[in-house]
């Protein structure tokens, strides 16, 4: 099929010449023939109508999704072995399994929109247009790294693409994201901030503080919870629905024959009626004046639950969220996703879940496999061509690592730079009282 | 669960040992007759076990402690005492400490763990404004003396920005809490039990570098070591060295090297940072006429500054040289430059010589 041929050749060529795939869209217009796909599962909306399940894409977008996710997957696997061979020090948190969240999000937004995330940041950086070399050099603490070797795994940044980084303390980045969103709203440039956090951070108080401020001031902030279901090392939580207090009492009443089911239903109906009457009355009550603006902020608890393993579902949700946030203020997206690796390199990730569970997800929900199947189903490339793309990703990763290894460590004077703004004086002390005044470059 | 947690601890400490050889702490500790040789995390585990066993109103909680904690300090406690006394909390430091204050205010012993000292800052408000001032502002009607907050602190060789900090000085500025840092397994067990039983809230920092590395004989039974009492762990006549926690092992190496050059160093473990034992340090400086303080935290505003100022006030006429401080640099804790940042043995040795030859 000639279309296929052209797709792959035009795709593969630029791959060999650049280490950053993601800023490129090397496709001819032939490849923009629309294809309609359906998201894996329906969205669940909270206080809002969820977006439609059907989404229009193009062959070129499908191929880009595949290529970019393959590259991300390969990068994380390579980082894993670099860490094990002690070339990466510090802490290292891998993203493989969650690629669809990053890819889908990027495809729905522009670089004017901001992203801020926690420490699982390598792929987000790549998604924003960062290069493999910058990533690996940063991971190994070298000068060519995106933070000049001073940040390491948890601290990737890319200001020119609106990536506000890589933050080490769980949940701390979310209030920052609200600050970004406020600045965006002030500028009126129709851009939004995606503040990403994990299900562990959802326990942090500052997350709620941030959400409250965002709602209070109608900030264009989208709080993206990447729910990978394992908080650091898998704290278990009880599903409260199973412990519904009313159900418990209902069972007791029935067991003791104190009332029939119908009588209990009648009581509930009565309760409903009373509530409705009260609501009707309350509606007649006048609105509070503006000074009471701060009293009821949760009226704006909008949210959408998304299959975070489906790049198109993510894309659709992010597009929806952006429109929503610009019009109505903050919204939460809960991405149901899965990380294949442990929480960090010190967690093998196999003690709180079974191997079967992981391989089950790989078989049924893997974000890359989903795209592969779509490509094959629409005859956009052959299996071999897709394999070639993966091989190429591997080659590019290997080349980037080799280059990164050649990059020197930061200069010793860098220990003292960037503590304060250049030229405003910094004093550091060496051994004993011998004062060492750092000369700022 | 057990394995992966174990791994984290072992990775941290094993790799640490590759980077820097520490003197094994037995030489630092007073003799631990009739005990087993155990490492620091096991000593902490024993102390917690005794605390739970000896007082049915004591509780241990924090992130992942139900599984044994990332450094294995709470291994087996949940099995032995049940999930209602040893339990996991959500990931919320401010909540953990606030909860502990409430629990302690009802007359219980609340032993909270913050996974890394670097993560203690969300709980700073609770510690400074709630825990420390509870007794004072209620005119002694309420207190949270049963509260002990444990947190691993300090460098491990490759921890980077957020797994290496030494935040003790922040807490030393807060009247109403005690700050305790042990140097070895035997010290850790006795000081932790004393902290748990002390009728004041205590912040207890554990040197994570030494969790596996430091091994010494530790008495098996229940014992406490006095708080606010420094210990002279090496006697000398030319200069007094004051430190705490993991840094003492480094300082002792410097003392040994200095001795080879004919300088006799007296080494003091402060053990409790507030309220601290000024008398022991003062008596030593009156003898030697010189003082050197060393800690991992940045030098400016570090607790060394307080010791220096107090001793200058008390011993001004006796001092023969300015007080020396060999500490971390005034930079954030660096990722690749940790060896430059740290107050190493050679830096201390240089400072000893400069001070003695002033």
UniProtKB/TrEMBL annotation, chain A:
Q: Where's the Dehydrogenase E1 component domain?
A: 68-230, 241-289, 303-411
Keywords associated with the record = Oxidoreductase, Pyruvate, Thiamine pyrophosphate
Q: Which GO terms describe its molecular function?
A: pyruvate dehydrogenase (acetyl-transferring) activity
Residues in a coiled coil are none
Oxidoreductase: is it a keyword of this entry? yes
For this protein, the record's Gene3D superfamilies field holds: 3.40.50.970
Q: Which domain of life is it from?
A: Eukaryota
- What GO terms describe the biological role, i.e. biological process, of this protein? pyruvate decarboxylation to acetyl-CoA
InterPro entries reported in the protein's UniProt record:
DH_E1 (IPR001017), PDH_E1_Alpha_Subunit (IPR050642), THDP-binding (IPR029061)
Chain spans, region Disordered: 344-363
Record field: compositional bias (Basic and acidic residues):
353-363
- One Pfam family of this chain: E1_dh
* Necessary cofactors: thiamine diphosphate
| Name of the protein | Pyruvate dehydrogenase (Acetyl-transferring) E1 component, alpha subunit, subgroup y
Automatic annotation (TrEMBL), chain B:
Enzyme type, top EC level: oxidoreductase
GO MF annotations, alphabetized: branched-chain 2-oxo acid dehydrogenase activity
Q: Which cofactor does it need?
A: thiamine diphosphate
Specify whether Lipid metabolism is a keyword of the entry. no
> Which reaction is recorded as catalysed by this protein?
N(6)-[(R)-lipoyl]-L-lysyl-[protein] + 3-methyl-2-oxobutanoate + H(+) = N(6)-[(R)-S(8)-2-methylpropanoyldihydrolipoyl]-L-lysyl-[protein] + CO2
The terms describing its cellular component in GO are: mitochondrial matrix
One Pfam entry for this protein is Transket_pyr
Q: Which domain of life is it from?
A: Eukaryota
Entry's EC annotation: 1.2.4.4
Q: Which Gene3D superfamilies match?
A: 3.40.50.920, 3.40.50.970
InterPro entries the UniProt entry points to:
THDP-binding (IPR029061), Transketo_C/PFOR_II (IPR009014), Transketolase-like_Pyr-bd (IPR005475), Transketolase_C (IPR033248)
Tell where it localizes. Mitochondrion matrix
- Subunit structure, interactors included: Heterotetramer of alpha and beta chains.
Q: What is this protein called?
A: 3-methyl-2-oxobutanoate dehydrogenase (2-methylpropanoyl-transferring)
> What is the scientific name of the source organism?
Artemisia annua (Sweet wormwood)
């Amino acid at each position: 099929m000639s279309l296929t041929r052209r797709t792959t050749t035009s795709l593969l060529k630029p791959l060999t010449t650049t280490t950053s795939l993601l800023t490129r869209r090397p496709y001819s217009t032939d490849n923009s023939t629309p294809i309609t796909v359906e998201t894996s599962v329906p969205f669940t909306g909270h206080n809002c109508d969820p977006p439609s399940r059907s989404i229009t894409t193009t062959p070129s977008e499908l191929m880009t999704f595949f290529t970019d996710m393959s590259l991300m997957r390969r990068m994380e696997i390579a980082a894993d072995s670099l860490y094990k061979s002690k070339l990466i020090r510090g802490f290292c948190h891998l993203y493989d399994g969650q690629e669809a969240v990053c890819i889908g999000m990027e495809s729905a937004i522009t670089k004017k929109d901001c992203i801020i995330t926690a420490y699982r940041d390598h792929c987000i950086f790549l998604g924003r247009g960062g290069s493999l070399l910058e990533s690996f050099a940063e991971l190994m603490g070298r000068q060519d790294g995106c933070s000049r070797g001073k940040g390491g795994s948890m601290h990737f940044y890319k200001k020119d693409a609106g990536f506000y980084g890589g933050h080490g303390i769980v949940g701390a980045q979310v209030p920052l994201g609200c600050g970004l969103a406020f600045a965006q709203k002030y500028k009126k440039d129709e851009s939004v901030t995606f503040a990403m956090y994990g299900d562990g951070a959802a326990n942090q108080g500052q997350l709620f503080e941030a959400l409250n401020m965002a709602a209070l001031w109608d900030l264009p902030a989208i709080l993206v919870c990447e729910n990978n279901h394992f908080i650091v090392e898998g704290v278990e939580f009880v599903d409260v629905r199973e412990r519904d207090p009313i159900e418990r009492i209902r069972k007791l009443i029935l067991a003791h024959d104190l009332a029939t089911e119908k009588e209990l239903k009648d009581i509930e109906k009565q309760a409903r009626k009373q509530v409705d009457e009260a609501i009707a009355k309350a509606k007649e009550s006048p609105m509070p004046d503006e000074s009471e603006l701060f009293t009821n902020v949760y009226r704006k608890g909008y949210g959408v639950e998304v299959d975070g393993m489906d790049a198109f579902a993510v894309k659709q949700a992010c597009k929806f969220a952006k429109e929503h946030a610009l019009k109505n203020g903050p919204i939460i997206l809960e991405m149901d996703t899965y990380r294949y690796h442990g929480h960090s390199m010190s967690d093998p990730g196999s003690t709180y879940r079974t191997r079967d569970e992981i391989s089950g997800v790989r078989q049924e929900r893997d974000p890359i496999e989903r795209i592969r199947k779509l490509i094959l189903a629409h005859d956009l490339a052959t299996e071999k061509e897709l394999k070639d793309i993966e091989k190429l990703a591997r080659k590019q990763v290997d080349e980037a690592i080799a280059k990164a290894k050649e990059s020197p460590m930061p200069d010793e004077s860098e220990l003292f730079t960037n503590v304060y703004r250049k030229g405003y004086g910094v004093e550091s002390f060496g051994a004993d009282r011998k004062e060492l005044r750092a000369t700022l470059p | 669960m057990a394995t992966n947690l174990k791994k984290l601890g072992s990775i941290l400490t094993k790799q640490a040992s590759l980077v820097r050889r520490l003197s094994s702490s037995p030489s630092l500790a007073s003799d631990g007759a009739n005990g087993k040789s155990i490492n620091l995390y096991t000593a902490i585990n024993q102390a917690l076990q005794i605390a739970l066993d000896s007082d049915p109103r004591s509780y241990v909680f924090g992130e992942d402690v139900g599984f044994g904690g990332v450094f294995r300090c709470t291994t087996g406690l949940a099995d032995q005492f049940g999930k209602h006394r040893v339990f996991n909390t959500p990931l919320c430091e401010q909540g953990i400490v606030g909860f502990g204050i409430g629990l302690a205010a009802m007359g219980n012993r609340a032993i909270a763990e913050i996974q890394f000292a670097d993560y203690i800052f969300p709980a700073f408000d609770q510690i400074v404004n709630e825990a420390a001032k509870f007794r004072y502002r209620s005119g002694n009607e309420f207190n949270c003396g049963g509260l002990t907050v444990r947190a691993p602190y300090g460098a491990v060789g490759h921890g980077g920005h957020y797994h290496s900090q030494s935040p003790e000085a922040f807490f030393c500025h807060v009247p109403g809490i005690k700050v305790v840092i042990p140097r070895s397994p035997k010290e850790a067990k006795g000081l932790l039990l004393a902290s748990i039983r002390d009728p004041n809230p205590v912040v207890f920092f554990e040197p994570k570098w030494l969790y596996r590395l430091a091994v010494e004989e530790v008495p098996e039974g229940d014992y406490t070591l006095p708080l606010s009492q420094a210990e002279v762990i090496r006697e000398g006549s030319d200069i007094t060295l004051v430190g705490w926690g993991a840094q003492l092992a480094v300082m002792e190496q410097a003392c040994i090297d200095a001795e080879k050059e004919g300088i006799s160093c007296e080494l003091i473990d402060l053990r409790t940072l507030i309220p601290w034992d000024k008398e022991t340090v003062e008596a030593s400086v009156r003898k030697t006429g010189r003082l050197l303080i060393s800690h991992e935290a940045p030098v400016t505003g570090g607790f060394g500054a307080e010791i220096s100022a107090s001793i200058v006030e008390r011993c001004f006429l006796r001092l023969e040289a300015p007080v020396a401080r060999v500490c971390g640099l005034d930079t954030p804790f660096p990722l690749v430059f940790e060896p430059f940042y740290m107050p190493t043995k050679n830096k201390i040795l240089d400072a000893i010589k400069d001070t003695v030859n002033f």
